[in-house]
Amino acid sequence: MPQSYGRPYLAIPGPTVIPDRVLAAMQRPAPDIYGGPLYDLADSLVPDLKAVAGTRQHLAIYIGNGHAAWEAADANVFSRGDRALALVSGHFGLGWANAVRALGVEVEVIEASRCGPADPGPLEAALRADRGHRIKAVLTTHVDTATSVRTDIPAVRAAIDAAGHPALLMVDCIASMGCEVFRMDAWGVDVAVAASQKGLMTPPGLAFVWFGDKARARARGGDLVTPYWAWEPRAFPTAFWMRWCGTAPTHQLFALREALTMLVHEEGIEEAAARHARLARVLWAAAEAWGEAGALRLNVADRSARSHAVTALSLPAPEGTRLRDWTTRVAGVTLGIGIGMAAPEDPAWHGHFRIGHMGHVNAHMMLGALASIDAGLKALRIPHGQGAMAAAAAALAAG
Questions:
Q1: Environment class of 300 (CB within 10 Å of its CB; exposed 0-12, middle 13-18, buried 19+)
Q2: What would the pLDDT profile of 222-234 be if each residue is shown by its tens digit?
Q3: What is the pLDDT of residue 32?
Q4: What is the distance between the alpha carbons of residues 299 and 311, in angstroms, rounded to a whole number?
Q5: DSSP H or E run through 337
Q6: What phi and psi values does residue 393 have, to the nearest 5 degrees?
Q7: Is the Cβ–Cβ distance between 374 and 387 less than 8 Å?
Q8: Mean pLDDT confidence for 307-320
Q9: Which residues contact 312 (CB under 8 A, 6 or more apart)?
């Protein structure tokens, strides 16, 4: 008999659990968009979003999702006929590379195994070989949401610097912003992109592009940018409507204001990163115990290369899908499907699943999700190692 009646838990890597306070902040009539408190509220978001990204540089906000953030950054930075180099660790890294290519930019891809981060060595070699500096930017993902691989961004910056190349460093932080430590200025990142529906605990619909002076200068004279995607009027508006290129996303702004109050001013950015790291270790302890017998495996073997926001696991078909169906139907816990974990032409999502542990997640939510998976493995008689919940509890107790 299903035990899923009650409040469900969406343990997928976005959209994530929205705090009740954030939902409540949206429940109000439409505000005046021609003056008054909305203007002050919108202004208050900018310093907090810069703090989350670890930057004092510039910010443009768009109505859109993560793909919109990609296109906004691409349209400002590139011109037709430019070249880019993409350091890829999974499906979404390839997605960004393809989005740039669709705009008429030539893209060279350096791809990892999808079970670990791409080696920055070949990146340095490729940049050294580009003596004419045709490559305008290096694209990479901080955390690829599909593989749960975390890329060492300072190492990528070091490779660019070692090559003595002027290419911009552009980083997709869609799965990591608000969850992982990210220091845009200290790490030498020129452009960072993110969206509202993951670590920022806000419904889908807002996209963010942080950019530095070097990227701003590069954008001048480009031939891809359109009035909607142009970041200059959004980052430096002379009228309120210019920040949004039209009507403001009013209720999204109320939601984001509340979420940033929770993240930046109440918990603290560093504390939130530490919470995500601790809960990730709890999950890993359980998964490593399950993997001692049977076929369930963490996608990333090296702990130092694992995301603290999402974890990808393999469980050969059809067991991965059976387990996901069971946890949803019986326990009320929805796990994420696998994306792009096999060859590009074979999504093979039946043999993989993902656990999102980003944003508004705490210890009892994590332990409940893990216990539901453990029960599902037992109910479906899927071979697995024992002692997962004891291992998870010990990891939590260890801090």
A1: buried
A2: 899 999 999 999 9
A3: 95
A4: 8
A5: strand 333-337
A6: -65, -40
A7: no
A8: 94
A9: 146, 147, 148, 298, 299, 300, 338, 341, 352, 353, 354
